[in-house]
Amino acid sequence: MTQATHHPSQDELEALFVNNAELDQITAYFNRFNPIRVMRMEGMEIRHSAILAWLLDPIENHGFGDAFLRAFLAQALRGADNPALTALDVSKADLRDAEIQREKRNIDLFVSSPSNGWAFIIENKFHAKQSDGQLAKYLERAEEDAKGAKLPFKHQGIFLTLHEEAPSAEVAEKYVTLRYADVCEILGSLMASSQARMGSEVQQFLSHYLEVIRDATDMNDEQTDMETLARQLYRSHKKAIDFIMEHGVSTEFTFAADQLFGEGLEYGDKAKAEGVKVMYNWSNQNSFSFVPTPWVSALGGEDSKPWAGLKGWWAEFPVICWFQLNTKEDGVKGALFLYAEVGPVDDPDDRKYLIECIQKCAKGKLEKQIKFRADASRSGARYSKFFNGNSTAIADISDAEAIEAGMRKLLLEFGAVFKTVEPALIEFAKYMEGEDD
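RESULT FIELD:
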């Protein structure tokens, strides 16, 4: 649990929020209009590929001709140990005949120039990491296609990455690395030198895109200035900001949980959703934990004596349930889970008996939804989840309604499971009472 902070005074809150030029400046920075962010596309790899395909195509309406394509390829080859194709070769070449293809046999970007006899396989990784054998597979496919069509292309792989990641060792001689930081510099330089040939709409769009990749690569001077300003603001108003962080931070997940279970819940409060009655335990920005109230009653009620080994663990009952929202690598999609777990009951034999009770109740009825790991009952085990098929996809983690709908869906799907587990807990409680006697 978070350590409680001291309440700030009225004067301290007013100093932070009333006519504070530093706070106004930071607020204005976050309120910049950027359509790419508005559509939540800044972290989506496929959208970056679409924009890059447009920039690389010499016949598109960006006004660069083949200048961006030449600069992009030459920068990738710069310093590479490849005597067959060098950065100088590309920078001097006429690439106006280049064809840009997206998702050709799953290759993110495929660039071919028949007049030069060159083909480039570009694998774009904005957040995700390369998979085993992925780069080699794409190169093999491209070479097979060229051989089948009798095209005398020299093939070169380019691994475009946001992070400092090198191509896997198996393709190190056939792939070169290009960073988004390089793309940022190329695009910024070309925009500065090509303004007269660019339409105002193109300039505006590319300014928005350049802002996105500058932020992602930590090359945005304004962002650096704002970070410095934010640190100064925090030092000046630490007490008020700490209080706000403890009591005022909300996310779309917390909005969804509040909508479903009610706002302002404290430990022990009762709530109900989709026919499932729960006792609230604790929550944060992406988790909401509870114990179904029939489980609480089955285990002796809220005032039951402490369970050995469970002090400080969740609600201090032998079992706990919680929702958890996990974010995918693209920063947009997510997965919502409904977990149930047997905790660290002190005596391994008692813990094993509880697991066996739950398994026995599920046998022949809900075995697909109640499934422990094979080693859950071993002597050293302490935490054992037992819900199976317990997740649902969230298309956009910033959509509170979608998260709430996901919570409702999982509660409906596991309503029967909650009821099935209840007799197991009654049996376990009786077993523990017998041991005490």
